[in-house]
Design brief:
14 helices, 21% helix, 32 strands, single chain, globular, 596 residues, alpha+beta
Length: 596
C-alpha cells in the first residue's frame, strides 16, 4: 500500500535560537528525542542534516584540522563531511549526506523537516522496456510547456501559450507552434506545477476551457491550492484533480506519474516524475530544492529551469547599496552561481538527456525597458556547454515545435531523427505582443467605485490579516514611470497594530516604501490577488530602511492571503465614510472622500 509523502518535524528552534546561529557549523540536539543535528550557516542561507555518519552511524564533532570551519569529523572512524556541500571529503568521492528541509515559521523560528518516505519513486520499481521509434515523443511548445506523447496517451506540462504572466510583467519569448490549441485539446491529461501565472495561466486555460472544460488537470496537494482562484477567475474548468505527494498515479498499464513537493516552498511548489514502460522523465520545474534535494538518478530525460531573473530583486530596488553597478555585479554573480548549481545537479543525477526550459520569458512592454535591459538571464546553450564539459550527459536546447524521440535518442544519440527541429523558416522568437486587451482589463480597476472611498485601505489590509509585526510601509500609487499618480493614494500602514498613521511612528521600526503602478495594485486589491503580480511582475519600486528582507511580510502577501477576495459589495453597501481608524492619505487632491 502506497503511503503519501509527508514532512515530519524533527526539530524546532525558537526565534532567539535562530538569531544566535553563528556563521559556519552549529550543533543541536532535540532534547525530547535525543537526536542530533548539524546546521551550516552562510550569511542568510542555512543547510542542515542529521548528525550521523553514513558509514556506521557515528557522531560528528568539529574538525579541528579544518581552518575554514566547514567540515566535521566522525568519532568512530574519522570520516569527514563538508557540511557546506553535504559531501564526504574523507573518503573522497564516496557519499553525500542526506539533507533536511529548513523552513522558517511565522515568528522567525525554524522547523527542521524530513520528507518521508524520502525516495517514494522506488516503490513498485519497473524495469525499462524497449521503446519503439516514435512511441515516446517530447515536443517543446513555449517556456515550461511540453507536449508528451507516451504511447497512445498525451500529457502536457504547464500551458502558458498566450497573454502575459504576473499582471503585465512577463511575456512569451518564443512564438508557440500555430497548432498549440489543438495540441492542448487533444491532451489526455495536463499537469500544472504551481500557481504562478507562467505555469497556471488563466488566459491560456480560458481558451482551452471554451473547447474542453472537462479536460483532466492534475496538481499536487499543496497547502495553498494551485487553483485557489479558479471560481473568481471566470474560467470554467470542471475536472481538477488534487493528488497526494509521493504516490504513483496510474494512467494506464504502461504510464504513471508522481508529484513531489519542493523542500523550500512545500506550501506551493511541486515537481513531477513521469514513467512510461520503466523509463523516467523528471521535470523539476521551478523548485528550489525539489523533494528536499533527493531525486532519482540516471533518469532518461531531465528538464529544469535555468534562466534566473524570476524575481523583482534587485532590479526594482533603489537607495543605499542598490546602485546600477551593484545590481549588475549581483545579477552577474547570481546567474553564474545558478549555472554552476544546475550543472552540478545534472552531473550528480546523471540523466541520459537534459533539457533547460521554464526560463523563456521577456519583459517586452515598452514601460519595462529598464527591467529588460538589466534583468540578464542565463543562456541555455552556455549551461549545456558547461554540462557537456563536466559529464557525458546529452543536452537539448529546445526550440518551439522541436520534438525529441526518446526511443531513438536512447538507442543512438547521434541519430539525425532523434531530435526533429521545426521546419526551416519557422518563427522562433516573438517580435510583437498583443498588449492592449490585457492592459485594458487592468485599467478597468483604476476607476472602480471602491477607490472613491479612502476607507478601502483599512478594509483591504484588515482582510489581508497581517499584523502584530514591527514594520511600517508607505504605499504610493504611481504612473507608468513610478512617479506619483495624479489623484492617487499615498499612505502609511503600521503592521504592529494595523493602524494607518499620518506620520511614521516615533518608536524604532523597519520601514519600506513601495511604489506600485496604479492599474496593477488596484487590480490586485480589487480581486484579492497575491502580490507576486507586483513583485515578480516588476510592477513596483522599493526602498527599505534598514536593508532587511522581511520574510514574514512578503511571504504572507505572496502566499498566505485569504483565498476568497474582499467583499467589496458589502463594503460599498455599508457606505463607509471617514471615521475612527480611517487611513490618513498624504497627497492632496486624491480621489473621493480622502481626509487632507
Amino acid at each position: 500500500m502506497d503511503i503519501e509523502q509527508r514532512a515530519e518535524i524533527l526539530l524546532c528552534l525558537s526565534p532567539a535560537e535562530v538569531a544566535n546561529l553563528k556563521e559556519g557549523i552549529n550543533f543541536f540536539r532535540n532534547k525530547s528525542t535525543g537526536k542530533d543535528y548539524i546546521f551550516y550557516k552562510n550569511k542568510c542561507h542555512l543547510r542542515a542534516c542529521k548528525n550521523m555518519c553514513k558509514h556506521q552511524g557515528g557522531l560528528f564533532i568539529k574538525d579541528i584540522e579544518d581552518l575554514d570551519g566547514r567540515s566535521v569529523k566522525c568519532t568512530k572512524h574519522n570520516w569527514k563531511l563538508d557540511v557546506s556541500t553535504m559531501k564526504y571529503i574523507n573518503p573522497p568521492e564516496s557519499f553525500c549526506q542526506d539533507e533536511l528541509v529548513v523552513e522558517m515559521d511565522e515568528n522567525n523560528g525554524l522547523l527542521l523537516l524530513e520528507l518521508n518516505p524520502p525516495n517514494p519513486w522506488d516503490s513498485e520499481p519497473r524495469s525499462p522496456e524497449d521503446l519503439a521509434f516514435g512511441e515516446v515523443q517530447v515536443t517543446y511548445l513555449t517556456h515550461a510547456c511540453m507536449d508528451l506523447k507516451l504511447g497512445d496517451k498525451r500529457m502536457v506540462f504547464d500551458p502558458w501559450l498566450m497573454g502575459p504572466a504576473f499582471a503585465r510583467g512577463w511575456w512569451l519569448l518564443h512564438e508557440p507552434p500555430s497548432d498549440w490549441l489543438e495540441r492542448l485539446c487533444q491532451a489526455d491529461l495536463i499537469y500544472v506545477s504551481h500557481m504562478h501565472s507562467d505555469h497556471l495561466n488563466y488566459p491560456t486555460l480560458k481558451k482551452l476551457a471554451e473547447r474542453r472544460p472537462d479536460i483532466p488537470i492534475y496538481v499536487g496537494n499543496t497547502e495553498r491550492p494551485v487553483f485557489w482562484n479558479l471560481n473568481h477567475s471566470g474560467v470554467k474548468l470542471t475536472n481538477i484533480n488534487v493528488v497526494p505527494f509521493g504516490i504513483w498515479q496510474q494512467v494506464d498499464k504502461n504510464l504513471r506519474f508522481m508529484i513531489l513537493m519542493d523542500g523550500v516552498h512545500p506550501e506551493m511548489d511541486t515537481c513531477i516524475i513521469v514513467e512510461y514502460k520503466g523509463h523516467k522523465i523528471l521535470n523539476t520545474v521551478d523548485c528550489t530544492r525539489p523533494n528536499g534535494g533527493r531525486l532519482p538518478e540516471k533518469v532518461d530525460l531531465m528538464m529544469s529551469d535555468f534562466a534566473g531573473g524570476a524575481s523583482g530583486f534587485p532590479m526594482t530596488f533603489n537607495g543605499g547599496k542598490f546602485t546600477e553597478e551593484w545590481k549588475a555585479q549581483f545579477i552577474k554573480t547570481e546567474r553564474k552561481k545558478l549555472l554552476n548549481y544546475k550543472s552540478q545537479l545534472v552531473k550528480d543525477l546523471h540523466p541520459r538527456i537534459y533539457c533547460p526550459f521554464a526560463g523563456y520569458f521577456v519583459e517586452s512592454h515598452p514601460s519595462d525597458k529598464y527591467i529588460k535591459e538589466t534583468n540578464i538571464k542565463n543562456d541555455p546553450i552556455e549551461l549545456n556547454n558547461l554540462i557537456k564539459k563536466n559529464s557525458d550527459v546529452i543536452t537539448w536546447t529546445p526550440r518551439p515545435g522541436a520534438t525529441l524521440d526518446l526511443g531513438r535518442m536512447l538507442k543512438d544519440p547521434t541519430d539525425s531523427k532523434g531530435i526533429i527541429e521545426p521546419p526551416q523558416g519557422t518563427k522562433i522568437y516573438k517580435d510583437s505582443w498583443d498588449f492592449e486587451p490585457y492592459l485594458k482589463v487592468l485599467n478597468t480597476a483604476v476607476e472602480d467605485e471602491i477607490f472613491l472611498h479612502s476607507s478601502w485601505i483599512k478594509e483591504y489590509f484588515t482582510w489581508a490579516g497581517f499584523k502584530d509585526y514591527n514594520l511600517v510601509i508607505r504605499m504610493i500609487e504611481t504612473d507608468e514611470d513610478f512617479s506619483p499618480f495624479p489623484g492617487g493614494y499615498d499612505y502609511l500602514v503600521d503592521f504592529l497594530d494595523l493602524s494607518f498613521p499620518k506620520e511614521r511612528p516615533r518608536r524604532e521600526h523597519p520601514y519600506e516604501e513601495i511604489r506600485s503602478r496604479v492599474d496593477v495594485i488596484r487590480y490586485v486589491v480589487k480581486n484579492g490577488l497575491l502580490w507576486d503580480d507586483l513583485y515578480i511582475g516588476f510592477q513596483t519600486r522599493l526602498q527599505r530602511d534598514p536593508d532587511i528582507y522581511h520574510h514574514l511580510f512578503w511571504n504572507h502577501f505572496q502566499i498566505k492571503l485569504p483565498q476568497t477576495p474582499p467583499d467589496w459589495r458589502s463594503f460599498l453597501m455599508r457606505g463607509e465614510q471617514n471615521g475612527s481608524g480611517t487611513p490618513q492619505v498624504r497627497c492632496p487632491g486624491c480621489l473621493g472622500d480622502t481626509p487632507l
